[in-house]
Design a protein that fits this description.
- It is a single chain.
- The protein is mainly β and 98 residues long.
- The protein starts with a helix and ends with a strand.
- Strands 1-2-5-8-7-6 form a six-stranded antiparallel barrel. Strands 3-4 form a two-stranded antiparallel sheet.
- It is built from one helix and eight strands, in the order αββββββββ.
- Helix content is 7%, strand content 57%.
- The protein has one domain: Thrombin, subunit H (Beta Barrel).
- This is Phage head-tail joining protein.
- One of its GO terms (biological process) is virion assembly.
Length: 98
């Protein structure tokens, strides 16, 4: 119930359109995370903006790289492998703009 309340809260989550590659668009709720990330590369440290979202497994059972997510008119593609939380209720996916 707590997870449903989190995804229903308009201050935390928002509506998005999830489209699996070659599939039909589905309206879902996402929690966005637009955190900065610092990555080490040899002796250098690289800063980059990242866009991650949480998706409920109940709404998106099998997200894959290349699937599309549109949030507030901005289109993104899932990149890399989605990661499920410990309870296996939420996917966290990395996005890149299309």
């Amino acid at each position: 119930m707590a997870l449903d309340a989190l995804f229903a809260d308009d201050n935390i989550a928002r509506e998005a359109v999830y489209t699996p590659e070659g599939g039909t668009p589905v309206l879902v709720r996402v929690v966005t995370r637009r955190a900065d990330e610092t990555t080490g590369f040899g002796d250098a440290r690289l800063w980059s903006e990242t866009t991650r979202v949480d998706l409920r497994v109940a709404e998106v059972p099998t997200p894959r790289p290349g699937d599309r997510i549109e949030i507030d008119g901005e289109a993104f593609l899932i990149q890399g492998e989605p990661v499920r939380d410990r309870e296996r209720l939420v996917w966290t996916v990395d996005l890149r703009p299309t």
